[in-house]
């Protein structure tokens, strides 16, 4: 998703360029999950991906540039939203997707590493914010549709409802050490749906 001269995310590569990018990003994800952001090294990523160091340094330049592009790719590869015809059904589908991702040993470790890096790396933080905005925007229509069906009050902030679904799951991942099971996902969806129906996410003014 980047040109060799430009910032990551500017040009969609094809052919060999796409294969190299896929291999490097897969290797970067593996390294992040294993060693965290502090242990991420461009030369190690090049070795894992079986590509030349020069290619990696020229195209991504820095560890933060590589992580930013990894997040772009993860947003693009995420599954599209599910439409069940009801607000609760849609929110449960969203919550279960988030749960599966965070409970996965590789993906969960990867997200922990990126979130930790975002605390002190502005470029990583910006990329992480873009990743979540992309995912929230993907699922926001299910809330707008619920408003149109009369399930939710007019003026409900669709983005805030979607954020409310995943927030308890991230909290559980990062703070509690408790298992991320499907029951936790369903509770998060049910709580967000109940609050939305009660008008908690209606925008003021």
Automatic annotation (TrEMBL):
<dbReference type="InterPro" id="IPR011075">
    <property type="entry name" value="TetR_C"/>
</dbReference>
<protein>
    <submittedName>
        <fullName>Transcriptional regulator</fullName>
    </submittedName>
</protein>
<dbReference type="InterPro" id="IPR001647">
    <property type="entry name" value="HTH_TetR"/>
</dbReference>
<dbReference type="GO" id="GO:0000976">
    <property type="term" value="F:transcription cis-regulatory region binding"/>
</dbReference>
<keyword id="KW-0238">DNA-binding</keyword>
<feature type="DNA-binding region" description="H-T-H motif">
    <location>
        <begin position="41"/>
        <end position="60"/>
    </location>
</feature>
<dbReference type="InterPro" id="IPR036271">
    <property type="entry name" value="Tet_transcr_reg_TetR-rel_C_sf"/>
</dbReference>
<dbReference type="Pfam" id="PF00440">
    <property type="entry name" value="TetR_N"/>
</dbReference>
<feature type="domain" description="HTH tetR-type">
    <location>
        <begin position="18"/>
        <end position="78"/>
    </location>
</feature>
<dbReference type="InterPro" id="IPR050109">
    <property type="entry name" value="HTH-type_TetR-like_transc_reg"/>
</dbReference>
<dbReference type="GO" id="GO:0003700">
    <property type="term" value="F:DNA-binding transcription factor activity"/>
</dbReference>
<dbReference type="InterPro" id="IPR009057">
    <property type="entry name" value="Homeodomain-like_sf"/>
</dbReference>
<dbReference type="Pfam" id="PF16859">
    <property type="entry name" value="TetR_C_11"/>
</dbReference>
<keyword id="KW-0804">Transcription</keyword>
<keyword id="KW-0805">Transcription regulation</keyword>
């Amino acid at each position: 998703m980047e040109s060799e001269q430009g910032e990551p995310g500017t040009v969609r590569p094809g052919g060999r360029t796409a294969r190299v990018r896929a291999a490097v990003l897969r290797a970067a994800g593996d390294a992040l999950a294993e060693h965290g952001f502090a242990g991420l090294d461009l030369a190690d990523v090049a070795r894992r991906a079986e590509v030349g160091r020069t290619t990696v340094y020229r195209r991504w330049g820095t560890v933060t540039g590589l992580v930013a592009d990894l997040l772009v790719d993860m947003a693009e590869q995420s599954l599209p939203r599910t439409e069940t015809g009801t607000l609760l059904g849609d929110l449960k589908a969203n919550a279960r997707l988030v749960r599966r991702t965070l409970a996965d040993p590789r993906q969960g470790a990867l997200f922990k590493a990126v979130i930790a890096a975002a605390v002190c790396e502005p470029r990583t933080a910006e990329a992480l914010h873009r990743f979540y905005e992309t995912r929230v925007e993907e699922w926001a229509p299910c809330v707008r549709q619920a408003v149109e069906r009369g399930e939710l009050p007019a003026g409900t902030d669709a983005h805030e409802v979607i954020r409310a679904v995943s927030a308890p799951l991230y909290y559980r991942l990062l703070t509690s050490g408790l298992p991320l099971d499907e029951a936790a996902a369903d509770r998060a969806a049910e709580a967000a749906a109940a609050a939305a129906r009660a008008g908690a996410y209606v925008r003021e003014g």
